[in-house]
Design a protein that fits this description.
Elements (H helix, E strand, L loop, with lengths): L8 H9 L5 E2 L10 H6 L3 H8 L12 H8 L10 E4 L1 H13 L5 E6 L4 H7 L3 E6 L10 H7 L4 E7 L11 H14 L2 E5 L16 H4 L3 E6 L12 E4 L3 H11 L8 H12 L1 H25 L4 E2 L8 E6 L5 H12 L1 E2 L1 E2 L14 E5 L5 H14 L3
Parallel strand pairs: 1-11, 3-4, 3-5, 5-6, 6-7
Antiparallel strand pairs: 2-8, 7-8, 9-10, 10-13, 12-13
Helix pairs in contact: 4-11, 5-6, 5-10, 12-14
């Protein structure tokens, strides 16, 4: 089964507005750093490594020194249980191509980052299981169990979730692993928003640390706020899987950018400082959003997410969210992603929702502009 991949609707929408709208109020990443600020954190040795770097090819699995630093972000992972990619997107692509065949079946939660479903759908049969907006975006494990077929090979999850910000309760996560273990199913876990939870007590283990068939995806782009480095990775205990990923990568990026590998290593060595900065920005912005939404309860159904940099909330205005999003960006320069961007081929996705971001420093200014625009346009 080879189904053509549909256009990546979210990225197409982002391409139109991300760099032209004055206030990107839907960004999924944390505020980025400038190169001098990152280098200022470097040790003398790492700074010299960067300044004297040869701009040649690097190892396909990723520079050993980078993988050693990535391994330190896990409880049980060694550096040879990792492979680096050009961002998370390449990692998702390769993992799906390596794991799945046309005879397999996969289960994917919705709503999701579109690659999570479009890539497996291009390979095999896929069943979607929707998070329930009317139940605080919870995942009903009985629906996961009901979706399992004899040939189910993979369950794909993402918590904290993009776009809802939902984190599974720990007991549900543990039960999901037991379901996977019982059926011998791989658990692909997108963990790019991990470490920016609302409450540290909500933090889930990384799948690769918790399950022998767990595959953990992470990247420098989201919690670390360094998307320009284009460094992502997969962590897995199965060497055969990692080797097959490495062979597949030969047809794509082959290796990562050498400067990015050094800069990512510097970022990870200073992850406590960077994550403290990210969490402070997120907490401050959520406080501002709380105040804003308190003033517009007739327009928005706001609920603080469990973690990450985004939330997916209902818009209650009479014109609908698609028209609201269009007018907001065209008239006020305030950019949101509406529900249509999260259309799924697997399950219905709640309509009249918009993705709200809170990882960028310009959020307070954007909120003021949005407030004034709404006030001017109130009947």
């Amino acid at each position: 089964m080879n189904k053509p991949m549909r256009d990546f609707v979210l990225e197409t929408f982002m391409s139109k507005w991300e760099f032209t709208a004055k206030y990107n109020m839907t960004a999924s990443d944390a505020e980025s750093m400038r190169l001098p600020d990152l280098l200022a954190m470097a040790s003398d040795e790492d700074r010299e490594d960067f300044e004297t770097l040869s701009l040649g090819y690097t190892e396909t699995f990723g520079a050993p020194a980078l993988r050693q630093e990535i391994a330190r972000t896990y409880d049980t992972v060694q550096s040879d249980e990792l492979i680096c990619f050009a961002g998370a997107e390449e990692a998702i692509y390769v993992a799906m191509k390596v794991l799945l065949t046309g005879d397999d079946h996969a289960i994917v939660i919705t709503p999701n980052y579109q690659a999570a479903e479009t890539l497996p759908l291009s390979i095999c049969a896929v069943t979607g299981v929707a998070l329930d907006i009317d139940d605080d975006w919870n995942l009903d494990l009985s629906k996961i169990e009901a979706a399992i077929r004899p040939n189910t090979k993979l369950i794909s999850i993402n918590f904290p979730n993009n776009p809802t910000g939902k984190i599974l309760p720990r007991a549900t996560f543990d039960a999901l692993i037991e379901i996977c273990r019982k059926h011998g199913i791989w658990l692909f876990s997108d963990e790019v928003y991990r470490l920016i939870e609302k409450d540290e007590a909500l933090r889930l283990p990384q799948a690769v640390d918790a399950y022998e068939r767990g595959i953990s995806l992470n990247v420098m782009s989201k919690a670390y706020g360094l998307p320009g480095l284009r460094i992502g990775w997969l962590a897995c205990k199965d060497q055969k899987f990692l080797t097959r990923c490495e062979r597949y990568k030969h047809f794509l990026s082959i290796c990562n950018s050498a400067p990015s590998e050094v800069l990512a290593r510097i970022g990870l060595k200073n992850r406590d400082t960077i994550l403290t900065r990210t969490r402070a920005i997120v907490r401050s912005n959520i406080a501002d959003w709380n105040a804003f939404f308190d003033d517009f309860p007739h327009l928005f159904h706001w609920r603080e997410p469990d973690g990450g940099c985004v939330a997916f909330i209902r818009y209650k205005g009479p014109e609908g969210v698609e028209e609201f999003a269009r007018r907001a960006v065209e008239e006020a320069g305030v950019f949101f992603l509406p529900s249509s961007v999260y259309h799924s081929e697997l399950t219905p996705v709640p309509q009249n929702c918009l993705r709200v971001g809170f990882g960028r420093l310009h959020m307070p200014e954007g909120i003021t502009v949005l407030r004034n625009w709404l006030t001017r346009n109130s009947p």
